[in-house]
Amino acid sequence: MYGLAIDIGTSGIRIQALDLNTSEVVATAITLRHPLPGANVIDHLHFAVEVGEDVAHRLIIDTINSLLKLLEIDLSKVERVAVDGNPTQLSLFQNIEVRDLAYWGEHAMHDYNITPPERNACVIKAGSVGLDLNPEADVYVPPGVKHEIGADALAMLVKSGVLEKRGISLVTDFGTNAEIALVIDGEVFTCSAAAGPAIEGQRIEKGMLASPGAICDVNPESNGWRMTILNEQLLAEKGDSVLPHSGEVVDKGPMSGKALGITGTGVIAVLALGISSGLIKLPNIATQDRKLYLQDGIYFTRRDLVEAGKAIGAFRAGHISLCEEAGITMHDIDTSYMAGASGFYVDANKSMEVGQIPACSRKVYQIGNTSLGMAKDIVLKPEMIDTLQSMADSIRGRHIMLATSKVFEKVYTLELSYWDEGMPITIYNEYLRRYGYNPLPKRTPNPEIKRIYMRDIPELGKKGLKVLRNIGVTLIGEFDGCTGCESCVKSCPESAIRLEPAGDRFRIVIKSELCDGMACLRCQQACPEQVFKYSNLLKGKKE
Predict the structure, then answer these.
(1) Which of 65 and 149 is assigned the larger pLDDT?
(2) What predicted TM-score, i.e. pTM, was given to this entire model?
(3) What domains are defined for the chain?
(4) Per-residue pLDDT tens over the stretch 288-317
(5) From CA 4, how far away is CA 167, in angstroms rounded?
(6) Which residues contact 230 (CB under 8 A, 6 or more apart)?
């Protein structure tokens, strides 16, 4: 009999099959993108509200079903499934109300006639959500905490072990939607920051998720910058050494010719090295063509710099906001825990340099994918779901909404000024003092840094890792008055649209995984006949 652990992240989905007799991992399968259009949880909510929750649900379920096939197991023998993720992803997975996550406040709930679901721990049947496996398999869904803090936040608290430790610790799951917890002698304060996709390598021109072929780190050498690249087993291996201003190869490494893009941890490394070497002088890149060259034609641009700055700014503003709300300063933080792929593969020293984690951290633990890890724990020990519910109930009273936090509003504005306008850090600190907040902490020399596992997903299983590079689910629309002019096709920045004949009409076909969703709408705006209505798209067939 088998069990399945599923992590539905904002940037992609990961699944592991486990042998319930031996508790061993059998196989692992991942996507490189999320099937829903858009690059963050706000985009996914907007899509679900405007196009339809049913459509969003089917996109997620169809993608999971495609991943299940890659596991190469007898799906009729799956007995238990556990699913982890933030409240938006878990709600869309279950096909329950999500509008309470999209709108905020009692007036909105009344005006839109919304009854928020409880989002407590529950057990449902696989057949009820459309999973292509034993329909009677139990699917365990862990509880959310409050609004945008969900089971993934519980996962990082449980898997880090921070609740049993004394002192002041900061735990962050670095992703498109970052979950942050400040733990003071067991008392927990939580928040969630919509950091944006750059931290996972998306919205970066040559970016990609942490997967085989991704540049995950960059280090200086005497004659150039040495690349580090993830191999087929998600282990970091040496790549080429190149001259960053030209891309000229100084010395080839074992992964020469195998780089496909740069992931978020590589982006952090480029920022840290660029700033320390003077090749980045905020807000610009100080090279002739305003690019930094890496390996195999991969490069980093001024636009990438701005996108990365938005993400790092959201992390630091979230950290400062939690500290201020809890009545402490960032100087008081003893230990930082870094969860998620972006928190695992990154060089923690570089994270401290650019502000991704507090520079004063004396200890740093990199703990990998805690959401998938907790889903695995639930599959092997189902009664754990009750313990998680009790934990969620105890945390709910100390959640800080950054959307309404004046501290976050002020600090994030400073972050944007720092990254996008080149505000000196001395001026940044002066504004913090004027607001009554503490200045940024000084760097701790020689912090203790420990990476708990060899890779983000500790065990891949005897069948290894399978990557679903092309999700292949589509959105389809046929609009009265469409002339087939292809203005929508030409306007799409992601090349996600094609036009095909449908009798005497035309059909719009959009690859959902490439589409930027409701945050873009260039296709709709480009239509000269004004007949293209994005909200009227329906889920198409899987290609």
Answers:
(1) 65
(2) 0.85
(3) 2-153+373-396+459-468 (3.30.420.480), 161-195+308-369+400-451 (3.30.420.40), 198-305 (no CATH), 474-539 (3.30.70.3270)
(4) 999 999 999 999 999 999 999 999 999 999
(5) 36
(6) 210, 211, 212, 213, 214, 216, 236, 237, 263, 345
